[in-house]
Write a sequence for this structure.
């Protein structure tokens, strides 16, 4: 069985190594900032998000398509985090 520490490490790695640099730069920093403080339920939703392909994630994050309802709140949070991060750069 996977330990909590191993789960977080795996999810962080998957956030930083998506396949497209754009999603690496969106999900990686979000994971670094938030994974450690997420509840088990929130982590389960984030794991579901990590299973989506990058093209769909980008369309949802850039408001080019509506996200599935079960991911909408998390994607709104990820999008807000990414936008705030870019404003500070």
């Amino acid at each position: 069985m996977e330990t909590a520490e191993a789960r977080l490490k795996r999810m962080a790695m998957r956030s930083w190594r998506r396949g497209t640099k754009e999603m690496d730069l969106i999900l990686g920093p979000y994971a670094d900032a938030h994974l450690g403080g997420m509840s088990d339920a929130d982590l389960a939703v984030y794991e579901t998000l990590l299973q989506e392909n990058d093209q769909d994630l980008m369309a949802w994050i850039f408001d080019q398509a509506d996200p599935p309802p079960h991911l909408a709140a998390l994607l709104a949070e990820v999008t807000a985090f990414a936008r705030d991060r870019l404003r500070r750069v």
